[in-house]
Specification:
The complex is a heterodimer of chains A (241) and B (421). Chain A has 241 residues and is of the alpha/beta class. Chain A has a single domain, classed as Rossmann fold, CATH 3.40.50.300. Helix content of chain A is 40%, strand content 25%. Chain A has a 6-stranded mixed β-sheet with strand order 6-7-8-3-9-10, sandwiched between helices. A 4-stranded antiparallel β-sheet of chain A has the order 2-1-4-5, with helices on one face. In chain A, helix 3 packs across helix 4, helix 4 packs across helix 5 and helix 5 packs parallel to helix 6. Chain B contains 13 helices and 14 strands. Chain B folds into 2 domains: 193 residues, no CATH class; 109 residues, no CATH class. In chain B, strands 1, 3, 4, 5, 6, 7, 8, 9, 10, 11, 13 and 14 form a 12-stranded mixed β-sheet that branches. The radius of gyration of chain B is 34 Å and the shape is elongated. The chains are: A alpha/beta (241), B alpha+beta (421). At the A-B interface, helix 2 and helix 3 of A face helix 1, helix 10, helix 11 and helix 13 of B.
Chain lengths: 241, 421
């Protein structure tokens, strides 16, 4: 599904250039549930933005479902984002003057689906998230968890192949965080590839694979099976520290 | 395609910032309002003046005499002189380019006290001695009776045609003036017509409807004027510029009256063709000025809109970023911003247009009731003008939206999403 080959990315130019990604090689198969971890400045958000075609990269190659994503026209990129990708953000990023249903329906608007039909589909997705009674509420009338569920519904409505989530639980309390993770798990269960960036270990532990970034390169990839062991090591390290 | 969501969003955005939208729109509103009002006012001035002279033969010129300004052939400077009947005959015989040539006399006491008496009614009117051809150069129409004719001239008839005002003053209401007599400077004249001028070009001063016209020949004889001619009007044949005729005519007259050829003062003249051109130039100038000022004001308004659109897209950077993340193409984004800008401009412009036209219409009603003597008539704008103004609006709306829109899509989607508020 996702294939990265020696991807480099720098910000700025000349002497002030900051080399953020220093050659990422990554394979994420279809249906994977992956979290990207790393300290701040490790390049995890940059990597996610590249995966989400929200940002470009300088070197290497990125294949998304067999399509090379490089020097793409913004029009083409928009189409690809719309059809292939669903986004979930830390700060929800709902459109403030549209109600929950309209927010969810928005991706279909850009596909040219007519109003009635897309609102109907949006209600279905809200129902799945258990938010049907809040369909006509504005974002500022919803709790954080509800907002994030609306955002997830919005990311799902275009039936994407990949969900890209940037700290989806970063602004939520623990209980709500787990709820959201439950939903993401279910989505993954339906065969959609889910990639999340997080710095919370308990959240990362719920995924099948953890990709740890350090100083712009992948330092380790931990499979779910090894997770327990790794977790103990980590806890030990923390206790001794 | 009517896109309800697009419009909903536009209305929403404008409503959210009522004051700002209003102030922005006001700039455009004012621009188009000024353009319409100024253009209408310019047109009204043109109508007022052109109505007054359009019936007048534009190929006409008028001549009178002044004192000479140079000594010549033994005559000293400052000499007074007059045209004579012979001159008129001579000019008619020797100038092929003349269409009509009509001499005129100014009656005695035109500017003095009451010169016209009928029973107990008296009045001070302008008395002219005219040829029938005069009515072809400066058209008058008879309201009652007839104009002067050739037989009046040939028989030196003591008849007169009078202006409407004269009839009002000299005859009680309801009385028929035709066939009645007026005592003008001590001599009785029979009224044969009440006449109405078609133009407001006025030769010899005074109100045109206070004129009394009698046959030229009758005036010369009755008031002992000999063969003197005070004044004459000339029109040139079609295709001949009257200015050329004017020059030739002056040469001939100077030669006949011992006036230095280079004496510029001795013959007074007035050339409608030249005045006509001046007026036309004046009105073209006024219309041009209107457009320059109007477009300038409008441009200020449009720049205001562009500026506000710039602010709006800055405020919405994050929103635009989100929209792009979930599939909005750059053309979606540009379309949206431009549509909003055009909507704001056209809406404001439409109000300006409507209010401007409304004001002109109201002014027209007031002017109409004020009557005929206004030099300001039928303020109006042409349909073409309105269409032109609207296209300018749409175009400037697109222009105002395009710059901010291009800027909005230049930012990378991720930078837009991360934009701090």
């Amino acid at each position: 599904m996702i294939h990265l080959n020696n991807v480099h990315k720098s910000y700025g130019t000349g002497n002030n250039s900051l080399h953020v990604l220093k050659g990422i090689d990554l394979n994420i198969p279809k249906g994977a549930f992956v979290s990207i971890m790393g300290s701040s400045g490790s390049g995890k958000s940059t990597l996610l933005n590249i995966l989400g075609i929200l940002d470009n990269y300088d070197e290497g190659s990125y294949y998304l479902d067999g399509t090379l994503v490089k020097d793409m026209s913004e029009k083409h990129a928009a189409k690809l984002r719309n059809e292939m990708l669903g986004f979930v953000f830390q700060s929800f990023n709902l459109i403030s003057f549209k109600n929950a249903m309209e927010n969810v329906a928005l991706p279909l608007y850009y596909q040219g689906v007519n109003r009635k039909k897309r609102n109907k589909i949006a209600l279905e997705y809200l129902d799945k998230m258990g938010l049907l009674p809040w369909a006509t509420h504005m974002p500022n009338e919803l709790s954080g968890g509800q907002k994030q569920r609306v955002a997830i519904a919005r990311s799902l409505i275009s039936q994407p192949k990949v969900i890209v989530a940037d700290e989806p639980t970063g602004a939520l309390d623990t209980a709500t965080s787990y709820e959201v993770m439950e939903i993401l798990k279910e989505i993954n269960g339906d065969g959609i590839t889910v990639i999340i960036v997080t710095h919370e270990h308990d959240i990362a532990a719920m995924t099948h694979q953890i990709i740890r970034l350090k100083d712009g390169i992948i330092s380790e990839i931990i499979q779910n099976g090894e997770l327990k062991e790794w977790k103990q090591q980590y806890t030990k390290a923390r206790v001794t520290a | 395609m009517f896109d309800l969501d697009l419009w909903k969003e536009i209305i929403e955005a404008l409503k959210k910032n009522r004051m700002r939208s209003f102030m922005t729109a006001f700039g455009v509103f004012w621009g188009i309002f000024m353009l319409i009002v100024m253009s209408g006012a310019g047109r009204a001035l043109e109508n007022g003046i052109m109505d007054g002279i359009k019936a007048f033969a534009t190929n006409s010129a008028f001549f009178w005499t002044e004192r000479t300004s140079m000594p010549y052939e033994g005559f000293k400077r400052g000499r007074s002189w007059n045209y004579k009947n012979d001159d008129i005959q001579y000019l008619k015989a020797n100038l092929n380019d003349v269409e009509y040539l009509s001499p005129r006399l100014f009656g005695p006491n035109s500017y003095g006290g009451d010169n016209t008496i009928r029973g107990n009614n008296t009045g001070a009117f302008n008395i002219y001695g005219d040829y029938p051809d005069y009515f072809k150069i400066d058209p008058w129409v008879p309201l009652k009776g007839r104009l002067l004719n050739e037989i009046d001239i040939m028989q030196d008839r003591k008849v007169c045609v009078i202006g409407e005002r004269v009839a009002e003053v000299m005859f009680p209401e309801g009385e028929e003036p035709i066939g009645e007599y007026l005592k003008i400077n001590g001599v009785y004249f029979q009224v044969v017509g009440v006449v109405d001028p078609q133009t407001r070009i006025n030769i010899g001063g005074g109100q045109k409807n206070e004129a009394i016209m009698i046959p030229f020949s009758t005036m010369q004889r009755t008031y002992n004027m000999g063969d003197v001619v005070h004044f004459f009007s000339v029109t040139s044949k079609p295709g001949v510029p009257v200015s050329k005729l004017e020059e030739r005519l002056k040469e001939l007259l100077k030669a006949r009256h011992h006036i230095a050829p280079e004496d510029m003062q001795a013959i007074g003249s007035f050339n409608i063709e030249v005045e006509w051109k001046k007026f036309n130039g004046l009105f073209t100038g006024i219309q041009m000025l209107t457009w320059i000022v109007g477009i300038g004001t409008l441009l200020a308004g449009v720049i205001g809109v562009s500026n506000i659109m710039m602010v709006i897209i800055r405020e919405r950077t994050q929103e635009i970023g989100i929209q792009r993340a979930i599939g909005a193409t750059p053309s979606n984004v540009i379309m949206h911003i431009v549509a909003e800008s055009v909507f704001l401009t056209v809406l404001a412009g439409y109000f300006g247009l409507a209010l401007g036209v409304g004001l002109l219409e109201a002014l027209n009603v007031v002017l109409e009731s004020a009557g005929d003597e206004m030099f300001f008539r039928r303020p109006e704008i042409s349909f073409r003008m309105a269409i032109a103004a609207l296209s300018v609006l749409v175009f400037s709306g697109i222009f105002a939206g395009m710059i901010p829109a291009r800027r909005a899509v230049k930012i990378k989607p991720i930078d837009a999403i991360r934009e701090e508020k």
